């Protein structure tokens, strides 16, 4: 067994690998860029080596720097995690040549499965179901259109060397196909150095189901069941679970059998994942094979009881699998939610900044958080925006989803925007709870992005009631302090009005005993039991004989900001007289469309499609900003002319930094 391994990665996956290595008695070495000098994975490792500037291309993707780190620290093996160099066959070969073991599959398997065109041909030869399409490289946009017309729309354009949904474009028309080809090739060239693109038929409303395989150097190959990964946004998985709520036993048997057959066909070694799309009739087709550890591997670990990272390390060290297929049985249900630094209210634009508060939900055997951040740390613009993975396990799917919802309610992150409100709403969505979903479900359910103010009447009334109780408790404490007699007079009246967005909710509070309030509204009484005290950021409460729930609460000036069930509201709680006066308070009106086109997030100006003096129309593409491994297309929000260009291609932009200034409207 190895005595020391280097983890050629960062963030949560580096921390997760280190955790298992230390449990095995193996020392760990971290590598880090200048931007990650104070990162959690650096603090977690036994040793750490700086490998270059912030940009991944100059640090985490520099094979030579990582090789030098191995030799300087005496690391005997390298675990690549996922992303970066994890599926770079040449990286594995160079490690082997230098006497360092690569903890992953052989270079040939990576090379064969990493090329999506080649992998489809191998899958077809191994009698694995394959999606109809053109298994070769597209020459240009016109060629893409010609092929799409032959295959039949809709089609999916995919970079042959990409992964993680990067560069994929769905096209329903010739125009979308041409533009999709150009964007797909561009993103693939930028992130993977390979602009080859192929095309295949798009399966309408498919399920995305993948099978985890394990193989050792002695020809033993097993599967650990399937994962359902159908809840996606922009081809990126958002919530994953194991097992799938959709597959019947016959399909489950067939799909896992084909996954093992493909692994055998390429002499696969280590942990890998074979991905499929499945239509409404349970017909399934090979999508790709990921020759690495998957982001969503914890759900498989929960239901199978197998530590995949430990297996990878032992296989790389030359040990045979100590598991047979008959040893693998699924136990319970596991669900994972990916926590991202992105703003759902701004169409999920990436968010960066310092984590001024970072509190994970209560840990237990049924709740696991794989995170690579800490309170006071920073979210950088240079890397993927994922903060953590929240994973839960329970006896049934219903209980697992409920536990995930409660854990999300407790997750506290301040300083950057996150997708937690969106996740809270998603896990409570009726169709998601019923298991009735597909890969386009999120964009169909939320076509204009997620609105944090889309609550129902009952939800907002409950939130208003909690805001009122919080204010009552604050006033009660002030009155008991004895510093201001007016506070006592104010508390003597137990009727309050919670105001939000011009909506008013009047409540009368009666304290039955400490922490037990009777709230009366319109003659209807509600028993609320709580133990909240001023300053606490989580408000746990129970209504009548219901479950205990949690709401995030934050004092903002004289108001209370409540985050509840994926929604956000700001409440001002006033006396009845104060509420009457509040009606006469004037709101500051904002101006209309800005005369500046601003960068919606920190990033790099990758492309500028206009020049000074040029006339533009509403909706016309003006610029492309790259941030956190994504290309973000900026469109004109007005008709007009370009008066002045304020940024150059290649510039690093701050959030809301002007890129150009509009002149007068076009005639």
In short:
The protein is an alpha+beta fold and 667 residues long. Helices cover 29% and strands 31% of the residues.
How would you explain this protein's 3D organization?
This protein has 667 residues and is of the alpha+beta class. It folds into six domains: 4-102, Rossmann fold (3-Layer(aba) Sandwich); 104-130 and 204-331, D-amino Acid Aminotransferase, Chain A, domain 1 (2-Layer Sandwich), CATH 3.30.470.20; 132-201, ATP-grasp fold, A domain (Dna Ligase, domain 1), CATH 3.30.1490.20; 338-444, ATP-grasp fold, B domain (D-amino Acid Aminotransferase, Chain A, domain 1), CATH 3.30.470.20; 457-582, Glycoprotein, Type 4 Pilin; 596-662, RNA polymerase II/Efflux pump adaptor protein, barrel-sandwich hybrid domain (OB fold (Dihydrolipoamide Acetyltransferase, E2P)). It is 29% helix and 31% strand. It has an eight-stranded antiparallel β-sheet with strand order 14-13-10-11-12-15-22-20, with helices on both faces. Strands 24-25-26-27-28-29-30-31 form an eight-stranded antiparallel barrel, surrounded by four helices. The chain has a five-stranded parallel β-sheet with strand order 3-2-1-4-5, sandwiched between helices. Helix 12 packs antiparallel against helix 13. It is globular and about 80 Å long.
Care to count the β-strands? 39
Q: Write out the strand line-up for the largest beta sheet, numbering strands in chain order.
A: 14-13-10-11-12-15-22-20
What class, by secondary structure content? alpha+beta
Q: What integer value in Å does the Rg equal?
A: 27 Å
The mean pLDDT is: 90
For the largest beta-sheet, the strand count, sense and barrel status come to: 8 strands, antiparallel
Which blocks of ≥5 consecutive residues have pLDDT under 50?
Answer: 485-492
Whole-number tally of structural domains: 6
The count of helical stretches stands at 18
Tell me roughly what share of residues is in helical segments: 25-40%
Beta fraction: 25-35%
